[in-house]
Design goal:
alpha+beta, 60s Ribosomal Protein L30, Chain: A, 6-stranded mixed β-sheet, about 30% helix
């Protein structure tokens, strides 16, 4: 509890409205209700990415491997918009409708993270924002100084 309080105090004391950047990089969908990236100092918070291309088309309907690849390509684009890559990612949260199918697609994740695996949480849920989505991944990354 004390650590949570300390982190909260640190963020509150260092983050003013001028220091918080909210971005929707080019080539990504342009949502109005959230930002793909929120940056506070050198911390980057990536919104949960799903299998949509830049025009909002679903990629890999019914195909977990194709959806994981599209999700990671989206994350790659968001990270690149800040000069970062997957080695900057320190934590991911994965939400899937089918853990076994996600595990079968694990090799795709290794392609992107390589020798820099982040801390990770994997949770199976009943459904995501649209029934067609099989996986959503959000991330926290640290920008290069």
């Amino acid at each position: 509890m004390r650590i949570v309080w300390l982190v909260s105090l640190l963020i509150t004391s260092t983050a003013t409205a001028q220091e918080i950047e909210r971005k929707n990089p080019e080539g990504m969908t342009q949502p109005t209700a959230y930002s793909h990236l929120v940056k506070v100092g050198n911390l980057m918070f990536l919104a949960g990415q799903v299998a949509l291309d830049g025009e909002g088309n679903v990629i890999g309907e019914g195909d977990m491997t194709a959806q994981v690849r599209q999700v990671l390509e989206n994350m790659k684009s968001v990270l690149a918009s800040e000069g970062a890559d997957f080695s900057n990612v320190v934590k991911i949260n994965i939400f899937t409708t089918d853990i076994e199918a996600f595990r079968d697609a694990a090799s795709v994740r290794r392609e992107y993270f390589g020798d820099h695996p982040p801390a990770s949480t994997l949770v199976q849920i009943e459904r995501l924002a649209r029934p067609v989505f099989l996986v959503e991944i959000e991330a926290i990354a640290v920008a290069k100084e």
